[in-house]
Structure formats: C-alpha cells, structure tokens
C-alpha cells in the first residue's frame, strides 16, 4: 500500500493524543462519583464484563477516526479487479517446422486446437486479433469480438517457409497500437536486417523504430514505464528460430517503450523434427532464449509447452490473467465505508448496553 498524499499521515498523531485525553477524562470522572462504603453493593448491579464493555464503543469510534485519517492521505493498493475492455493480439508461427509430429498429431494442429479453446473461454469484454507469421507476417483477422470469425481465422492458417518472428511481432504491435504509425512496408520490405541492426538500402545504418517517425508525423512520445499499457497485450507463439526479418528482441524493446506486454510461448520438444519433408528430414528446435528475452524486456511472462496439455494449461492461465488484472487502485472509499460501519456499531452497542 502507498499513499498519494503521504504528508497527511501526520494527522495520525492525533490518535495517541485522544487516547491520553480519554484516560484523563476517566480518571477525572472517577474522582467525582459518589463513594460507596463497599464495592460489593454495586458490582452485582453492573454485571460481569461491564468494565470492559464501557470501553468498546469509544474504541470503535477511535478505530473509525483512524480509518478516516488514513483516508485523507488517499491510500492506494494493488488489488485484483475485473479487467476493463481490452484487446489481445494472438501472433502464431505458421512456418513449416509446425509440421513436426513430436506433439501429436502435429504441432500446428495442437496449436490450433489450443488457440480455439482459449478464444472460446475469453469473456465478452476481450476483443482479439489474429496474426500469422512464417517467412513474412500478415494480419489474418482484425480486432473483433466475434468468436466464429476468430475460429475461422485460426483454421485458415497456411504453412510457409521461413520464420520471421520479429515481423510477426511488429504486425501484432501495429494492430494493437494503430496510432503508433509504424511504417510496416518500409520496415519489413524496404530494409535488410543484419546482426540486429537496420541497414537501409543506401547502406547507412538505420535508427530504431521509435527513432524513425513517419514523414510529417509528430515527434515520438516519450517512453512509458514497462508494462504500463493496460488496454491490451500480445501473445506470441513460436516453435522455431528466426531465419529472416527483424530481431524480435529489438522489436520487444520498442514494445516496452510503449508499455505493451508480450507474452511468449515456446512450443515443441527439443528433439522435434519433420520426417521426409520434401525429401529431407530436419530438426525443428525452438529458440527459447529469444522468446524469454522478449517477455522479460516487456515485463510479461515466458511459457514453455512441450505437449498439447501444457499449451492448454498456459492458455487457461492467460485467460484468467486477462479476466482479472492486478492494478493500483485508490481505496479511500473503502476505508470511509469501514469507518461508517464502525461508527454505527459503536452507536448501536452504546444504546443497547447503556441506553444512550
């Protein structure tokens, strides 16, 4: 818990002063009461527990005042609340390595089945877009809350050569943040990436995404805290190593500057291979290191799935995450309500026990 106006916490010093004043008032009252020759005359009339009960209403009022003083400092706590209307972009690898049969019946079939089950379980306030990537990337289904359209998009995947993980992530980010003005045509097709650097056609090293504004565009906005974007996220699933396109880790750095989280899923076993594909058999090993770095850079989570059951569990976890989100929320109203309950309880007990 933290406080928006912490300087007002000094008001809590009033609490010990009130306690001292209460004790002083009790002692002063004790000297003014009628003196009895024997306490045995009044103890039966007071009943058991009277000495404790008379302090309970004042104690409740003191607790209520403490809550009110805490509320003036505007406390804020990180709690789980229903997520607002948000957008998810599901970016899925459709490279030929997804034909590997280490996850029966094949990686692509298992991934499609798990993705469709995930979409079915999402609540109505979550909209989804679908991006596929292999040698290049494309938006298969724009942002929508129509489940049948999303399921049809998953079923329409066509496997291709190559794995452009960075391109898939770029298209996903452009879908999630259309106002970011990413020049996809220039980035994906008008430039060549070498060793993580952008080399323009003229041979000069290019600048990073957030340093290359579109012609006529305003200056790029300042970076925001990592993971601070709460209106959506990207889920990226891949089973292989990047063979073309931009470095996904570099793209992740740009996503982090926008506060977007990119959850990554490494799908497949270490020894997965495609038998007899176009006359050759080759291994299809996932690049876990790069996917871990993407998730870490954006403040998200990395998951490893070696079978269909693992993948289904991961999607269930993600579904619950996007249904309930943890965020800093001011709880002043909650403290005020609790203080009101304590005041009413104190008044009720006082009227019941002492008729006043």
Question: Can you describe what's shown?
Answer:
This protein is α/β, with parallel strands linked by helices. It folds into two domains: 90 residues; 224 residues, 3-Layer(aba) Sandwich (Rossmann fold). Helix content is 41%, strand content 21%. The strands form four sheets. Strands 5-4-3-8-9-12 form a six-stranded mixed sheet, with helices on both faces. It has a three-stranded antiparallel sheet with strand order 1-2-13. Strands 6-7 form a two-stranded antiparallel ribbon. Strand 4 and strand 5 form a beta hairpin. Helix 5 packs antiparallel against helix 6, helix 5 runs parallel beside helix 11 and helix 9 packs parallel to helix 10. The radius of gyration is 31 Å and the shape is elongated. The two termini are 38 Å apart.
